Amino acid sequence: MINKLQNTDILGAIQTIDTEIEALNELKNLLDNDLTRALDMIEQTQGRVIITGMGKSGHIGKKIAASLASTGTPSFFMHPAEASHGDLGMVTDNDLIIAISNSGESKELIDILNYTKRFGIRLISITKNPESSLGKAGDIVLRLPLSKEACPLGLAPTSSTTATLVLGDILTVAMIERRGFSKAQFNQRHPGGKLGSILQKVKDMMHKGEEMPLLKTSATINEIILEMTSKRLGCVGFVDEKGDFCGMFTDGDLRRCLNEDLKNAKAIDIMTKNPITAHPEMFASEAIKILNDKKITNLFVVEDNKAIGVIHIHDLLKAGIV
Length: 322
Fold this sequence. Notes:
Elements: H1 2-30, H2 33-44, E1 49-53, H3 56-70, E2 75-77, H4 80-83, E3 96-100, H5 110-119, E4 122-127, H6 133-137, E5 140-143, H7 159-179, H8 183-188, H9 193-198, E6 214-216, H10 221-231, E7 235-239, E8 245-250, H11 251-256, H12 267-270, E9 272-273, E10 277-278, H13 284-294, E11 298-303, E12 306-312, H14 313-318
Parallel strand pairs: 1-2, 1-3, 3-4, 4-5, 6-7, 10-11
Antiparallel strand pairs: 7-8, 8-9, 11-12
């Protein structure tokens, strides 16, 4: 019985996926020049892009607004009911409204539609029905597929919300490309959580100044061990007479040299010359890839041949970068 139920569940899941894929294929066939016109309108908007919708359309609208806002297009979600009770005052002449309604007849949108017409606010309509109230009100209509819902009752928004979500992703991705939005700009909008840590720069996480273990190439083995022990990073970097970074010695190197007579050794005799280094503008995710690939634990951060910091793999792991 359990296996039969599991089999039924899997078949049902596959049918849901197939039904929603059909909706996306239909959406693909509906794409036309109105999409380009809509993207032009979004790109030319000097104010904010305001997304609105009721019910499930509203939930999808919140995600679209969040995606646009985090990728360089100032945007926020406005609830239709709140709009009718004062939030329409947020809308300026420079803004653009994107209204979402599967049927195009959501009565909660009426006040917003009237407002756009009264004050000349530009409107992009997302709906299945271009002949609906929302469709006729829009300066541009982006059509949703007429495909059936995956819900067995044909009632719960499923395929339609998936298509709306993907259409929002289409707008977001296209605007990223049009604006030339960069990883650095993305990081500025995602300072917290996993994304924030991955997109941190090496310069933001490195040890610098007095924390940096750095000596001249004339340093003795005793000076090296003392510096390595006091700075507690498991390495020492070396600079030449010009102050340029030129070598490195690690606690692993020290262990490998224990059988040798190092009493009179100088740094220049035992250091690793021209070691792998990091640039301060390197992403932390790139740094940890180097550390993992080369099976090392430290990278000196070098700019214009000068050591300005050192980063340890533990710093990256503590920040959640893997």
